[in-house]
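Per your request, structure below.
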């Protein structure tokens, strides 16, 4: 039976690859944004837009035997049948002004879509980003089902499906995390992960360390992306970087921030240095290069912590489970 599992799930992943652009209305929303600035329409995406979802065909009992389980999502995606289905769908979408990829880490399945510059010429990117978020809401159930299906054949404790839409230069337009229905609702990147977030107050502002995900960049180096929340509870506009230093450590050694790789997609990273008004809350991401497989300790401490007794906000992530 194991040979049928990757064939069926691989086909399902490929269908969702197409659906996420076409059937959920993203192509139409992109075209609407384009039409507001131009008199012509975008090129038709082709026959892929007629693909219909069939998530009900996913076998709920496909992983009933232990021999059918994969150790990681990465191993699952390396199955030749799964990879063939996905690559065929990516090839079908080639030439539509967008690049697509499906990759995985230990417990995360990542769909990445990048619009090329020509596709975005004349498009209101803020409007497009809002439309992409709306479209992801419309297909949340589909991606939750994908997370559930993959969790049935992968031994990781909790599977996450991460969908990222971005520009060719790596700028993120929209990003959403999805989990199996029984483990939590979908949310924006940096959203809730089972109620395990850590928050603390530093100088009249609240900083939260929400969640993390690991990956491998195009230079073959491993990295971790950490999701933060910053709330300005003071009386004047302030940016997070004026309140706290954010660092990550492995084995007591500080990790370098991850820069210079287009394959690391970050959401709202500039919010770390952007002033926000009192009463405003923002979420942002920071990435760090990993040195080994040891636990990661993330720390946010006050800029003047050496002069006062303000305690830092800390959270430790296991490199395998990201918990």
């Amino acid at each position: 039976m194991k040979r049928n599992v990757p064939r069926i799930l691989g086909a399902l992943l490929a269908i969702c690859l197409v659906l996420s652009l076409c059937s959920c209305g993203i192509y139409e929303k992109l075209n609407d944004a384009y039409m507001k600035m131009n008199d012509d329409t975008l090129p038709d995406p082709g026959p892929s837009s007629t693909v219909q979802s069939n998530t009900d065909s996913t076998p709920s009992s496909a992983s009933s035997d232990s021999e059918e389980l994969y150790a990681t999502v990465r191993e699952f995606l390396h199955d030749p049948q799964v990879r063939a289905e996905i690559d065929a769908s990516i090839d079908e979408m080639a030439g539509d002004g967008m690049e697509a990829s499906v990759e995985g880490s230990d417990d995360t399945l990542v769909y990445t879509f990048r619009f090329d510059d020509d596709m975005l010429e004349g498009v209101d990117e803020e409007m497009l980003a809002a439309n992409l978020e709306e479209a992801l809401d419309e297909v949340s159930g589909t991606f939750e089902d994908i997370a559930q299906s993959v969790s049935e054949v992968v031994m990781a404790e909790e599977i996450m499906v991460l969908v990222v839409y971005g520009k060719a230069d790596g700028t993120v337009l929209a990003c959403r995390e999805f989990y199996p229905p029984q483990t939590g609702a979908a949310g924006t990147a940096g959203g809730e992960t089972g109620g395990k977030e850590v928050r603390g107050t530093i100088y009249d502002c609240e900083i939260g360390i929400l969640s993390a995900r690991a990956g491998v960049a195009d230079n073959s180096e491993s990295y971790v992306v950490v999701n933060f929340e910053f709330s300005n509870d003071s009386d004047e506009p302030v940016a997070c970087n004026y309140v706290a230093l954010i660092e990550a450590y492995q084995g007591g050694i500080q990790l370098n921030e991850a820069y210079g790789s287009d394959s690391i997609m970050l959401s709202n990273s500039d919010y770390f240095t952007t002033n926000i008004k009192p009463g405003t809350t923002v979420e942002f991401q920071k990435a760090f290069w990993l040195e080994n497989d040891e636990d990661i300790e993330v720390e946010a401490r006050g800029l003047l912590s050496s002069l006062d007794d303000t305690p830092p906000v800390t959270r430790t992530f296991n490199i395998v489970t990201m918990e």
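Helices lie at 4-19, 26-35, 73-77, 80-93, 117-120, 125-138, 140-151.

Regards,
D.
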